[in-house]
């Protein structure tokens, strides 16, 4: 996950919860007004039909105060997906019948948007239509290279998302394969290497090393190769004693060498990290459950504003020590440890050996395992 890469959205989207109705952000207020003298009455009627269909996709207003049950929500999503396909049909009918209408581009954008939302709910009709739309644009000689690349990226995003039902490893495999194909088809672009680096950050140690070497030995730009080298540096720390010593934000002296006999979780995080905040309740529960059995946590904050950090610690009653230097991504310990993305959770065993750099995956099982050693 590259902190400055615009392609971050393609993996981060794997972990975003879709908010029903709101995600469509579609309504009569954002429509292009049909006031031109060249717009036919038939086109106006067809456009009104589209707007009516859009309104039918909105979630019930009462859900703003009373959350629906999972069963009710699932049923609504299925109905919404079917309605989305119907609305997409209306949009296609509009721009097919009235190709000169000024609202054609808007109709095409709405068609793709509602189909994408329907496909997220597993609607096969929507998936087939999206593939059809992709092929139409890819086969159009007038489609620019940048647009072709975006189409391929979006398609890979959908394929990766569908693989999530088979687990993260399967999804990463699809993403890496797609990135390599993009590299073969667009050899002068750096983005496929960024995507491979995204995968390497989340992959197992063995696969991460292979991907990092692949990037270093390839034609990636020097900044990306530098990040791959940093990843290898981080991986070199695995299986070795991990040394960490600092004065915490609250004045406590932290020295991992004095924590031998305990399982220690080194938590690289920031208050502005959405994924971290989303996982916070589970993380806190694990700590409270296993702390009495010898599990400790040490926080390494990538925050730049001390006030925001203090507020979070106070509100959430965070009891473990925190390293803070206000440098954000230039955080001293983060740089020395090769940490280029957060949240990241490292697990140190009772002998002080760094055993895991992806401890958030199956966290409870891992803590239990190392506490039992």
Plain-language structure description:
The chain has helices at 8-12, 41-55, 70-97, 104-120, 124-138, 145-163, 168-185, 191-202, 205-217, 222-236, 274-290, 306-316, 332-337, 363-371; strands spanning 245-247, 253-255, 263-269, 295-301, 322-323, 344-348, 354-356. It folds into three domains: 8-143, no CATH class; 162-236; 245-371, Glutaredoxin. The chain is built from 14 helices and seven strands. Mean pLDDT is 85; it is low at 1-37. Helix content is 54%, strand content 8%. It is an alpha/beta fold and 373 residues long. It is globular and about 80 Å long.
Q: In a nutshell, what does this entry contain?
A:
This protein has 14 helices and 7 strands. It has 373 residues and is an alpha/beta fold.
Summarize the topology.
Blueprint: H1 8-12, H2 41-55, H3 70-97, H4 104-120, H5 124-138, H6 145-163, H7 168-185, H8 191-202, H9 205-217, H10 222-236, E1 245-247, E2 253-255, E3 263-269, H11 274-290, E4 295-301, H12 306-316, E5 322-323, H13 332-337, E6 344-348, E7 354-356, H14 363-371
Helix pairs in contact: 2-3, 3-4, 4-5, 5-6, 6-7, 7-8, 8-9, 8-10, 9-10
